């Protein structure tokens, strides 16, 4: 949307919003909230720079405003424009015009509405010369001007200290459009309530006493407390920091996404009126119950739970356990939003000065409003294709209105494109040998550019350790993030540090582990309440080739037994000697061998006289075989069980995270397979000989199928769709 | 591939460096020829042609976009570029210049400071053409002034780069001379991506092969 050009370098707008768009804090939030509301109308909106010399020249535009401009909400006015006109100009920082407007294009506004969004007094005196500001506004922007405070305290300060300044009789009350903030709260089942507080640089008010702060943000193991920003102030007030507190850097995520991951917004300090508690209003708009001290009622109205700090823990436990009462508080907050802080009220105020179309009468089309929604999938690939395969299984089962796009470091990304999904390659330092931190700093902007292009409604990561570059990119892109995290991590407490990264995700989905009883890793006791779905596999039982067709495709003799060997990529373990033992035994037992070759194998291990299969997915051919000799990675293990192919497991013990041996040993204990003990690989011939007994194989196959009866890919896809639908 | 280099690479003269790189190449050729002899004939190999929708781009349009990306990069570094950005200063990440693997063929360069990156575009080349082009680059790397190559490709077969441990970037589009003008939003994305690529590798030009 461009302003109507009326002359060279000139524009005619309906409304112009003027301020320093690089600023952060209450004034910037006020401007951004107004712009968000106005962008829902069919108006020509311009943005006029008023440069604040106090800000560094390199400071970027505030991210919330930048995002709106990126979505074509308004047009920045060029500095050399010479004939800008508009019906109404909203001026957000009058102190910036007190010293003149020489560097600003001359504007002809029918009315200038000066929005007073922050206290006038600084160190007991006026913060700028209002008379000079009035004069410069009249000279450069428009003769008719209206000065309008946003809160009673600001009104009182201007009324008492700005002599001769006429204030508009009604406040321009803060507003936040619910549509821009509302997300659905995650289901509470089995999850500790999450309390949060946003501490902005201009609103870092904390209680004077540490006891009050600790009362409002209790150090209780059944509660999780998160702060966005304010780490320094918090650390100074409370030492040591409670174990259940999570301190996030101010830019670790957007305010909207931070609020989306909370159950309660808790804000406690002594003076609620000095600066409007904007983040609490945003939390109300996001649909989270606000808990605040009783003194906040005068500012926020009815709806929030007003409690003394010592009652916060009890209140959140109660409301978390009783969704009906939580909903009742929300309903009351929503009523207050509609009554006191509604965008309609803001528009009604503007309507006194300019004719406006009705809100939502002509909503601007949003890129996400299209019928199909993109969903981004980011599988890492370690030494196999497990993460890729799992996300492919889920992607192909998403609802039809979702369009998957993949970002991956997988060198075998051809299989993803072959499956019909667009794929972007994301290099990893382990492959291109770049320095890790440099790589993160260089890759995050690349990912962010891609996210902005594909505009996904959700971002799904599958891997053991969420990639730093992805987390950084997601911090600047507002979409729900989901971590698909399989269990069966090694019983190494040090791996627990990765679990804390789940706070950067809106949901964790855990494809179940058939061998869950043997899972002694940290994910087994994870407190981030993952959504558990049955084991995820790419192929359903009906997707496999029938036995005769599979044998024919692989050129196998129908009358002789055949075994599939899938030892893994060999990228991190020695599969050569294992293969030699198997080849030698097979030749003695007249067993036909097909050795699966991993698509990303660095150094293929090949032996003369052996048939190799370089395919994806291998499971399609399972019915060609009487048995398998296999590593015990998540996908291979569950595919073999689900499809009932009797298996001799040779676990890869060199995995950093995945505990293959525990998985395989469990299968043996259940009579659904055999796990070759460590160091006994040379005895594989005796295992193979035993597996030539059809009755043994039948029994194992039956047990295996019973242990892994369901493919959870559909359920995982549904869970992802649900998270995305929450917003 | 551990190779003890004598004399130490740190005090090697340019002439010695060239000799060392040639020695590395000799060893690599030896290893590769040994591997080739072991390739079995009894293999069932599936292929994975892309079945997803990718943007189509004619060669002329591609050349124009590459040229524009390079011009933008030059502008980006200039005072005029800074002035343009100041009109609406979005956050501009500080991107370090990466130093990737020089490739197994010249792996000794890994420990040599100051070796420049050179970005080569192999867009529109099939596997055979890409391999031939990589061979030419690696030969040049071995015989001429030392450099670290980075390849831009739009073919999803990464084998040659993975085998030789060469840095590459993949751009998912199809070279198609029958294609109309690129979709503007995708073209803008492609240009933004190329701009980041040039910054990441610290170069202003892309060498099209």
Describe what this molecule looks like in 3D:
The complex is a heterodimer of chains A (727) and B (209). Chain A has 727 residues and is of the alpha/beta class. Chain A contains 26 helices and 27 strands. A seven-stranded parallel sheet of chain A has the order 17-16-15-18-19-20-21, with helices on both faces. In chain A, strands 3-2-1-4-5-8 form a six-stranded parallel sheet. Chain A has a six-stranded parallel sheet with strand order 11-10-9-12-13-14, with helices on both faces. In chain A, helix 22 crosses helix 25. About 1% of the residues of chain A have low confidence. With 209 residues, chain B is an alpha/beta fold. Helix content of chain B is 44%, strand content 12%. In chain B, helix 2 crosses helix 6. Chains A and B meet through helix 2, helix 15, strand 17, helix 17 and strand 24 of A and strand 1, strand 5 and helix 6 of B. Chain A: This is Glycosyltransferase.
Summarize the structure.
Chain A is an alpha/beta fold and 727 residues long. Helix content of chain A is 34%, strand content 17%. Chain B contains six helices and seven strands.
Beta-strand content estimate of chain A: 15-25%
How many DSSP H or I helices of chain A?
26
Radius of gyration of chain B: 20 Å
Structural class of chain A: alpha/beta
Oligomer designation: heterodimer
Structural class of chain B: alpha/beta
InterPro entries (chain A): Glyco_trans_28_C (IPR007235)
Domain Glycosyl transferase family 28 C-terminal (chain A): 618-694
Protein name (chain A): Glycosyltransferase
Pfam family, one (chain A): Glyco_tran_28_C
